[in-house]
Specification:
alpha/beta; binds NADP nicotinamide-adenine-dinucleotide phosphate; single chain; 7 helices; Rossmann fold
């Protein structure tokens, strides 16, 4: 447990698996109360079991929600704030990756990507900012991507969504900075998760970042003095396979 996180309340979207769960776990260990959400009830229950094992049932709660819907995001933020009495940290992490050439991407896949990766960030921030203001400030983390600054073949929807997250975050940071709300955007390279349908040997490639690497960035950035704002960082695997 550490002073910076004790009595703090954090909401992690998509916190039931992958990078989101990797971020939720050390936050709980450091003393924060955690609220997580995701679409799959079984995954959510399993993750809550893991979080309860770390610090008892009072330290973690969650609900099924689809962040593509504004009403779900509103209810998740209210639920977290009501359950734990405040909201100090919001991690906008939920995301999907659909990678196809633009002429093969369906309109539904485009919409799902933009709604999950970009609109949800607005929805959650829209609801979280007034709650954070009531308690004198907070910290919003956006899990963006290196593909927020590099367009790649097959990444039209994903890159558009993450370029959007970076732009949204940079503008919002200026809306809320004088309310004591810091906004930090983390741009990881490849992380070993199920993201975008990665499976089997593809998933476990040892050169990839781990969710813990991204969690460490969240913890370290939060610990910066309150008058210092780490607004954007890139984290990449140090030794990816050499390009042929
Ligand atoms: N893995 C990488 O290489 C990588 C690199 C850079 C950035 N990122 C970003 O990191 C974030 C997390 O990705 P990950 O690697 O942890 O992927 P992941 O293992 O596939 O996890 C995605 C998470 O998002 C949740 N989610 C997806 N759609 C949702 C929805 N509509 N409503 C609520 N929750 C939803 C999932 O839960 P449910 O399925 O239960 O809904 C899951 O918890 C994403 O924003 C991704 O773009 C990942």
């Amino acid at each position: 447990m550490s002073m910076e996180f004790e009595e703090k309340v954090a909401l992690v979207t998509g916190g039931a698996r992958g990078i989101g769960l990797s971020i939720a776990e050390p936050l709980v260990r450091e003393g924060a109360s955690i609220f997580i959400c995701g679409r799959n009830p079984t995954t959510l229950e399993t993750a809550l079991g893991r979080l309860h094992n770390l610090r008892g049932e009072s330290g973690a709660a969650g609900t099924v929600a689809d962040v593509r819907r504004y009403e779900d995001c509103r209810s998740v933020v209210q639920h977290a704030a009501t359950r734990f009495g405040r909201l100090d940290i919001l991690v906008n992490n939920a995301g999907v990756g659909i990678f196809k050439p633009v002429d093969q991407l369906t309109a539904e896949e485009w919409d799902a990507t933009i709604q999950t990766n970009l609109s949800s960030v607005f929805y959650c921030c829209r609801e979280a900012v007034p709650v954070m203001r009531q308690h004198g400030g907070g910290h919003i983390f956006n899990i963006s991507s290196l593909l927020a600054i590099h367009g790649i073949a097959g990444g039209s929807a994903y890159c558009a969504s993450k370029f959007g997250v970076n732009g949204f975050a940079e503008a919002m940071m200026q809306d809320v900075r004088y309310d004591g709300i810091r906004v930090s955007t983390i741009m990881p390279g490849s992380v070993a998760t199920d993201f975008g349908g990665s499976t089997g040997s593809n998933l476990h490639e040892p050169w990839k970042l781990s969710g813990k690497d991204i969690a460490q960035a969240v913890i370290d950035i939060y610990r910066y003095p309150s008058l210092a704002l780490v607004s954007r960082i890139e984290i990449r695997p140090s030794q990816p396979p050499r390009k042929q």
